[in-house]
Amino acid sequence: xxxxxxxxxxxxxxxxxxxxxxxxxxxxxxxxxxxxxxxxxxxxxxxxxxxxxxxxxxxxxxxxxxxxxxxxxxxxxxxxxxxxxxxxxxxxxxxxxxxxxxxxxxxxxxxxxxxxxxxxxxxxxxxxxxxxxxxxxxxxxxxxxxxxxxxxxxxxxxxxxxxxxxxxxxxxxxxxxxxxxxxxxxxxxxxxxxxxxxxxxxxxxxxxxxxxxxxxxxxxxxxxxxxxxxxxxxxxxxxxxxxxxxxxxxxxxxxxxxxxxxxxxxxxxxxxxxxxxxxxxxxxxxxxxxxxxxxxxxxxxxxxxxxxxxxxxxxxxxx
Length: 319
Known about the structure:
Elements: E1 2-6, H1 11-27, E2 32-38, E3 51-57, H2 64-73, E4 80-83, E5 98-100, H3 110-118, H4 132-142, E6 148-152, H5 164-175, E7 186-188, H6 195-202, E8 210-212, H7 219-226, E9 229-235, H8 238-245, E10 250-254, H9 259-262, E11 269-273, H10 278-282, H11 301-315
Helix pairs in contact: 1-3, 1-8, 4-7, 5-6, 5-11
């Protein structure tokens, strides 16, 4: 079977689509996969079973990236062509069957939406494909430490970034003597360009110490490191979705983003949002996309600490 699968550019959206891709691979053993994905998320799929070709889609002026992609795939007759970008591209190639995403429903979780697209109930959960070298690289960076508190204090927009100093306060409470993760190390994740955002947490003096992973991992290595976490705590981000996809307890913090649409997915994943609804935040006079302030400050450290401790108790990961 020849499968063409076009997925997202952003890491979080690509992770959310991975459940559908995994379902198709399970349904069609031995499928030969050509995957088209944006550059930021491409490393997530380097260990994808059945991967014949990985096409990195980079935006070009006047839609030139779509023309380039069409030229790459038009010569093949596909058994199944999946287009999660709602483009016209997949309708212009030869395929026995097509799955093409429609308009997004902001009140419906993306995983549920993709399950409905394929007629799958319950919807297939996201997952990561990691290799032995990814886990070895993670072990080298972590020094073999397990049961970590993993924190993703950054975000791609300041408006949805909870203040890093508050993450530090929660980390201290959770890892202090008597805390649910007493004495555990805190691993801080982020991209190389996000170091300034993470500095208050990186500089914190925490009981179990801080492991600085900001800018030091590729995505698969970060995924392998997240497998070793007792808890991931962070803003809405690709890292949050990766943490949930590897099955670890995951607490995602939400304000401006829609937790209905983008909450971390899984039985051990939870979303905690600000006291203000998304509509209330958007109605603020100072709400804008080029903001220089966080709209997450309604979430207190006490609220987040309590939610993290409750999730740990519910998932019994502290033993």
